[in-house]
Every structure is written in C-alpha cells, then in structure tokens.
From TrEMBL:
Organism, scientific name: Celerinatantimonas yamalensis
Lineage start: Bacteria, Pseudomonadati, Pseudomonadota, Gammaproteobacteria, Celerinatantimonadaceae
Name by which UniProt lists this protein: Lipoprotein SmpA/OmlA domain-containing protein
Amino acid sequence: MQLFKGEALDLHGALHWFMDGRMADDKRTPMTQFKYSMMFPVLLLCSLLLAGCTLLGGTTITDSKVAQIERNYTSDDELLQMFGQPYIKMTEGNNRQRWTYYSDTADNQSSWFRSSAQHKTLIILLADGVVRDYRYTKN
C-alpha cells in the first residue's frame, strides 16, 4: 500500500496509521499509542449519548393536551395537530397503528449534577385513523 509518493506501508502499518492519525513508525510509547487509539471511540460514544438525550425531547407533551384525547373519537389528524409527528410510528396490521411520543423537560433550576428533568411518554393505539386506546406516563 502506498500513501504518499515513495512511501510504502504494509497492512499492519496502515492500521496503525489509521488508528493513531500518524505514521506507524513514530516514536511514541505503546501506552501513548494506546491512549490515542482509544480516544476516538470514547469521544464518539460520548457524542452519541449527548445527541440521544437531545433527540428524544422533540415533542412537548402537556397534561392539558393529553386530556383532549378521546377514545373512539379523536382522529390521527387531530393528534398530528396537537403533538406533531410521533417519534415512533408502527403499523400492526389491519389499519392498526401504534404511535409513540417522548418528551423530556427540565426546569431552569437544574444543574449538571442534579437534574429535575421530567420524562413523559404517550403511546397511542389507532384503528382506522381513530384513537382506540392510549397510555400516558410521566416521572
């Protein structure tokens, strides 16, 4: 494998070059090389975890909105107006669907170490475009 003109690398060297971000023949100690090779996966995992926390809180679920839902009466169009697109939309056959909404809210008094976030979940079962049942939980 040739990276630059006149430089040849074997597969082992190419792997080190990829993991370290440097050429394989650098003079770092094995422990330093290990630390640098582990930094990328750790940073990637942290980024994904933080992104996941922010992605779940896309819909605002309020008690007053949930109180407006009536079994065998509220339509899917009304749900879309109240809550927007669901986080998860599953088809269960014969014109039956399960919509799931998540909401994470925190007050202004929360901090890094002590969060007073409130997690809400609304699961709605629809048949023929009408709410048949729903479950609302908050903690």
